[in-house]
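FW: tagging you since you asked about this chain on Friday. Here's the raw sequence from the shared folder, copied in full. Didn't touch anything.
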Amino acid sequence: MNIPPASQDFDALVVAHARKDFPLLRAKSSVADALARIRREGLGERVIYFFAVDEEERLAGVLPTRRLLTAPLETLLEEIMVRRVVSLPATATILEACEFFVLYKFFAFPVVDKERRVVGVVDVSLFAEELLQDENQTPASAPNDDVFEALGFRLAQIRGASAWRVFRFRFPWLLTSVAAGTACALIVGAFEATLAQSLVLAFFLTMVLGLNESVSMQSMTVTIQALRVATPNRRWFVENLKRESATALLLGCGCGALVGAIVWLWQRDAPAAAVIAGTIFVSLFAASLFGFGVPSLLHRLRLDPKIAAGPVTLALADFFALSFYFSLAWLVL
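HL: got it, structure written out here
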């Protein structure tokens, strides 16, 4: 049974949605006996793992399909099964089941009662098929990695990890911000005379950078959400680039005209107003393209856009904005 995301009650018990159409195998039986039982009882809609139980019907181990099919027929299941099984309690909620998929990255979990008797099985398609489905892609063609990503799989890289591991994962990307900040400081220092000539530029520097960063983050967030449910190709890239460019032009025109008018009404300085308005127009357009292009490129390179795109996008957007701001001011003023 699949649960459309719109109707999910994440506090509902997952056992109510667990599959029951699966064979339970005896741990002390042979591979030949197990295969005969599977043929006799049949398989359900989707079987990813087989589960073995002891004489008291309690969960004893899990058998990956490949092990079962490639082992000699006389081999006992208890010799090839994985004894350490991660299972969901029957009292677990749908939300807790999602967290299990994120943490352990397995494709299915048995659901057990207090006596560790198997009462059902849930697989990842229970939650992810509808999330991955669009007009160009069916669940059957969805890459496995996309299934976990739709459930927040990438969070498993840092969840429950030590502080040192989290540091090693995140720090290299933050070095991008450090490098960009240093470069921006050097740019400001190189145009010290221009800045001293027109203090209005200093007054609105924070606003220019703030608008620039806000637009780049908005564009980046929208792009990352789109990448989670789409299969990027040339057509997808061109269509989204056109839409993002049109949006960026409107944002640049609107914000540039508004801030330019504020500068002129306050300081009556037309050249400074033109510089600030022009910078906002161009930098917001560039920031939107950075916000779209960086996550798309990182996704293409199979890097995590949710962690890496932020520092890289902001660094590029700030560097471009400051370079254009002071270069234009130097030419005009």
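FW: The chain is about 60% helix and 10% strand.
HL: agreed, and Confidence is low (pLDDT under 50) at residues 1-8, 129-143, 150-158.
FW: great, closing this out.
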